[in-house]
Write a structure and sequence with these properties.
Layout: E1 2-6, H1 10-22, E2 26-31, H2 39-55, E3 59-62, H3 68-75, H4 82-100, E4 105-108, H5 118-132, H6 145-154, H7 166-184
Parallel strand pairs: 1-2, 1-4, 2-3
Helix pairs in contact: 1-6, 4-5
Amino acid sequence: MRMFLHICCAPCSVMVIKKLREEGHEVTGFWYNPNIHPYMEYKARKEALEGYAKSIALDLVEDDLYGLKMFVRNVVKDLDNRCPYCYEERIRKTARKAKKLGFEAFTTTLLISPYQRHELLKEIAERIGEEEGIPFYYEDFRTYFYEGRKIARELPLYMQKYCGCVFSEEERYMGDIARQNKKKA
């Protein structure tokens, strides 16, 4: 099957691409991540993916939108529930692009992360696939997460420390500070 794969970052793509290719799919990657901030983080992830794609002969389509204002404008009223907007934005763009380019189905590397809201992501992607008239290919890739991270470190690929948005970065560092304070107590 000709598969259009939304890629959030190179490390998450390693095992997803490998598994899809092993299953016989012809995979093309798609970079669209206006949720990733600040700009230097966005650039580091994008460049890591471009280099990795080249190294494994993966065709890569890019929609290079650094969307800080758009993202913040759409999540600021409910920061604790920003993930649904983020999923909706990236998955809908992926589905539309996949259909426009004549792919048979689409999927996302977000399905490999144990840190994502997996069932919500699946539900949103299935709904969007129906609405846009292109099948969403579902596979639970989470069992390959740590293997993919190990390979990514060995390559070495740039490894980010948070999901992507500035709010997830804050949560990560606030968690680190809380853990450090707990150790001191």
